[in-house]
Amino acid sequence: FVFYQVEILDWETKKQLCFLDKVEPNATIREIRLMFHKLYPRWYPARQSIKLDPKGKSLRDEEILQHLPVGTTATLYFKDLGPQIGWTMVFLIEYTGPLFIYFLFYFRMTFVYGLDERFTSSPHPVVNLACICHSFHYIKRLIETVFVHRFSRGTMPLRKIVKNCLYYWGFAAWLAYYINHPLYTPPSYGKKQINFAVIMFLLCEAGNFSIHVVLSDLRRNGSKTRKIPHPTKNPFTWLFFFVSCPNYTYEVGTWISFTIMTQCVPVGLFTLLCFIQMTIWAKDKHCTYLREFKDYPSHRMSIIPFLL
Amino acid sequence: GRSRRRRRGPGALATAYLVIYNVVMTAGWLVIAVGLVRAYLAKGSYHSLYYSIEKPLKFFQTGALLEILHCALGIVPSSVVLTAFQVMSRVFLTWAVTHSVKEVQTEDSVLLFVVAWTITEIIRYSFYTFSLLNHLPYLIKWARYTLFIVLYPMGVSGELLTIYAALPFVRQSGLYSISLPNKYNFSFDYYTFLILVMISYIPIFPQLYFHMLHQRRKVLSHTEEHRKSE
After folding, report:
1. Tally of structural domains, chain A
2. The domain that contains A41 carries what CATH number?
3. A7 vs A3, A13, A75, A222, B173, CA distance in Å?
4. Interface predicted TM-score of the whole assembly (ipTM), two decimals
5. pTM for this one?
6. Quick check: A183 and B180 CB within 8 A?
7. Which residues, including other chains, have CB under 8 Å from residue A141's CB and lie 6 or more apart?
8. Are A86 and A155 in contact (CB under 8 A)?
9. Interstrand relation of A4-10 and A16-23 (parallel, antiparallel or unpaired)
10. Going by fewer Cβ within 10 Å, which terminus of chain A is more open, N or C?
11. Residues 146-205, chain B: which have Cβ within 8 Å of A?
12. Can you tell me where the transmembrane regions are (chain A) (predicted)?
């Protein structure tokens, strides 16, 4: 039984930050992070990137010291990832913003459309419907964040959340401005168009929720390992026969239905950007699945059945 | 010792195509340069020279859009986003400002940026041509990384003054603007957009300028070392 010695150097300056004596061979990186945190209280574990190579990838918490390609005196490198924020908190902030920002425009706060229009309401029922749908969408997301999602990674850099919020909140303000504008024009095909959009919206929201539940169940026991998602008895999950990321498919569907419902170009633009972003994420996830599982269903596409 | 650099550059066919592309572009901008000089000599003044080179300017500046494709295909090692940004800003000025707002075509600021672009592009495209043929004269390299010091601010001044000159005419005619109500529930004010474009020069221009200065120090001092060691 040999004790390890671990020295941790700064990844840039190579200065020795700490030297840990008598480390157990089966110690996990998580434990090493905790030890490092004791010496440097301001660098809490989520902020520490511990790696074998100064320019390499960060080691995961679960990695065990003796399984790493190091001798009994291990040299690890530390990089400060900056202030971190938990994923749950990230989503709560990102989703609460659009919810309340939309209301500022729906209730026509004083500074939005001018003093003459303040607190008036729209004569078009579709505007009320749009507010209900938009709010429903974000409330559903908030509920999912708290009760359904199980995140594989704990945190995200604080800087990124500012960028994300600017994007989501900015777009919410932009599209809410036009939908709730006094000069808003309802859809060209009237009730038919709106009813179709509402049905599509509800189906996609139900579908999206079903997929989130399936994905959450894959991680039911708190395990962080990846498993192949499969369709269940719920018909909404049958999209898994055709695509790897049906949650993104349904999400794009939701925004398409919202575009049809409001017939508003900014909503359409937002939908397009969502589609592009989600396609990138879906392709990424799809590639990861293909790489990790040899028996992955080969006919599955990433986001659009048979196409993409 | 010298570190081994693994360059995965374009294949033979792509290289041949790129050489042809860069030669054609060099020739095109030379045509514009010659056109400017001839028109100046014929007219006796430097006002309103835009009309004499309007067509080749539009053609060759728009042709630069191909460079975005080159990056996307990977035959040129630049970033797609950066190249797209640079080319689109040029194309925007050529078509959405100078072409669309006829009243600014007689402004002297147009000559300012056209001259800056012409000299810059002739040097840039010949730089690429020679680089691809692995025979880059030091003069061209020096020119590319030095003349920008004057040409870049010159071009930016010309561009900003031209946009500024276009503003009143855009406001008057409501060019490219759409207002509520309309069935797409969208509004766009080109006048405000142009002002935002002008403001965006403030953060962007210094960054690009200092980046080029930094590149200059790197590239030209590296060559000096090589020459000294020979």
Report:
1. 2
2. 3.10.20.90
3. 13, 14, 5, 32, 70
4. 0.72
5. 0.78
6. yes
7. A91, A95
8. yes
9. antiparallel
10. N
11. 180-187
12. 85-107, 166-184, 196-215, 235-250, 256-276
